[in-house]
Each structure stands twice: as structure tokens, then as C-alpha cells.
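Review form for a predicted model. The reviewer records the input and the model, then writes brief findings.
Reviewer: anonymous (R2)
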Amino acid sequence: MQKPSLPSGTRDFGPKAFEQRRYVMGIMEKVFRLHGFQGIETPALENLSTLQGKYGDEGDQLLFKVLNSGDFLSKVKEEDKANIQSKELLPKISNRGLRYDLTVPLARFVVMNSNEIQFPFKRYQMQPVWRADRPQKGRYREFWQCDVDVVGTKSVVSEAELIDIYLEVFKVLDLGVIVKINHRGILDSFLSIAGNQENWNSFMQAIDKFDKIGLEGVNTELQNRGLSHMLEVWEAYSKLSEQQDITQLIEGLRNIPELQGEELELGILALTEVLELVTDKSSVMWDLRLARGLSYYTGCVFEVLPNDQRLDERFNIGSIGGGGRYDNLTGIFGMKDVAGVGVSFGLDRIMDTLAAIEKEEEVTNQNGILFCCMDKESLPLAVTLSRELRSFGLSAEIYPGAVKLKKQLDYANQRNKQWAVIIGESERESGELSVKNLVSGEQSKVVQSELRNHF
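Model under review:
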């Protein structure tokens, strides 16, 4: 007999984990809606033509491709099957893939529905995405993203609002975080030093590893990539990231002669305006070394890291959120000059972080009513009463069958029920029900007609 198993990098979520995740998502959704965002959903499957080329070469390698239905090899000639290369074979056997993120599907959605959308379009979306990555702590092949985006405006008010949304959600979750920000324009100022676009791309890939390998590691990486001529400017630039006085940081940037230019000034201006509008400036840090997602981000970039004293110093899960401005993204689908900015919450990493500070019990609500019948004659009354309570929005269920009371109460406690309504022959005759508070242990008699008002 085959032993059941899960694909690597995927997980089941039992009732407790499900409730915890729904609780966190409920907090996010409430904050999103308070800021005027509207929800959408897109298919798990997208055309590969929609997905490929949007995440860089590395991202394309992580796309899950779905084989065409039926005989997927039917369009491949027999003489080609033994010699054909994988890149040549792919278009013949697969034209769809699982979505890699929620941003590219959003761009497709906006282009396809532009006549019905009211701009600026403020949308949120909470759905799973898939990446063929190597599974490890905090990194899964199937995971959820919870995104908020504003499409159709270039105002930095949107950047500031998204940072505020981050801070509001994590405040309710009682999880300390730091929001790192940077700007593509500042990083673009390295292009003249790099010499060409290919060198600049290689430079960005190297400095994006800073959090994992540190300054010396990045220096070695730059040397190995043939970018030793950028080391001196990079080290001066990197040192400025440790400067948290914004005025001195800006002055330091302007004192590096190799970086001067319009792109640098545009980046400085945008970040200065964003920081002025953010409510809680103490939780926001300008990190010059932040270089995420530059294959499509064009302006501000964001990254959220746990910053909670209750976390063990050995806990290292990486970012739990991130995003940026992508003014040119819809252009890949033929709709030019549509600005956009968005951020994502990494639900799975957030849950892992909450677990690390042992907050699971705070995201599990103890509620609900269980009807315990002492005999089968009491079942019809329990059905009627439970149906009535549910009509008033109360969670009520009946233990299926008239077994020993201890077994029914054990079930109620395991299910985190707060109340048990016990019905037997005496309760039916008197019209008074036995109601037990399973948290305090107190038990009282409640007139049947007053049962709803007791909870």
C-alpha cells in the first residue's frame, strides 16, 4: 500500500493553523478596506507568455510549467524527441504555468479591464503563489501573498500610505518590524561606473546578497564578477547606509562625485517626500543597500523585516514583506504610461514569526456553543435551538449522538468551545436548560426562551 505524502515545499493546514491564518488575514483585510482598497482574485493558471520574461532569467527558472492536457507530446516529431533541447521543447508541450506572484497577474488584469476600472485603482488580493525554489525555513514552493497596490498615480502619497498599512497591520498583530526603503534612481546612478547595463545588473545581483554575506562577501562577489573597479565607490556608498540622520545621509551621497546626476536627485527627492508623509518614522529606515526586484521596480522599493525583542537572536527568516513602484509594468502588455506601486505581505513567514514569539494563542478565538444531549429524545430540541442561535449569528453545533456527558465535554474543550448546553429529560420537562461556561467552570439554569440572551 502506498504511503501518502506531500510534494516538497507544500504543507497541510489543520483547523488550528487555518483559524490562525484566517485571523491574520482578517486583520490585513480590515486595514486594507479602511484605506479604500477593493479585493480581486485571479486564476492560479496564467499563460506562460504572461509570466515569462517578467522576473529575470532566475525567476523564469522558478516558474512551475503545466503540461498541456491530453497527449502533450503529440506536436513533437518523432525524430526530434531524442535530440530536442529543453528550451525548444517547452513551447510544444506547455503553454500555461502557475502564477509566480500577484503583481504580474494584476498588470494583466488592469490591461484587460481598463474600461471598467476607476483609476487610481486600489486593489488588494490574498491568494497562493508557486515557485520552484529549494524549500527551507521560511521558503516554500507554495505560499500565500497578501498584496495591496495602487495603479494609475505617480504620487508618493501612495508609497507613504502603503508603509502606513504595513505598520498598522503589524501593530494590531503586536509584532515589531522595521520597514526598509530605497529608490531605483539612486541605484541607477551606479550605471556610469558599471560601464554598461550588463555590469550594472551583475552589480545589483551582488549587493542584493548583502544581508546574507555581509560587506566582505559582497566585495569578494564583485571581484569574482570582474567588477573590482566599482569597489571603492561601493564601500563609500555602503558605509552611508549605517547613517540614520537623513540630512547627513543625503549630504554623504552628494559628496560621492561618481554618483552625481539626475537619477540620484530624483531618488533623493522621492524618498525625502515619502519619509515626510509617513506616520511612524521610527519604524522606517532608509537602506541604501536595498536592491530587491529591480527587474521591474522603477522607483521606491520596500522590504519589511521582523524587529521584535522577543525573537531569539538566532531567528533569521528574512523579509516578511516587500514591494515597490513599477511604473512601466503594464507596458509589457501594450498599455503604456500607467503608474503603479504595491507591497506584499508574506503570510507564511509572518505566521512562522508569530509562532517564534509564541503568539499562536492570541490568534485563536475561544468561542462557540455545543449542545450535549443526554438521550436521543433531546436531539430534536437541540436541533431547533441551535438553528435559532445560528440565525442570530452565534456559532452553535450539536454533538452527534447521545453518548456519555464526559465524552461530549471533552470534545467541546478540544474544539475550544466556550459554552455547553446540556439537555436531558429533566431539562425538557422543566423548560430550563443546563448551561456550562467551559472557561470558568460555572454552571447555571437558563429558561429556554432566554437562551439567546445568555451568550
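Findings: Residues 15-34 form the longest helix (20 residues).
Further findings: The CA atoms of residues 237 and 253 lie 7 Å apart.
Recommendation: see findings above.
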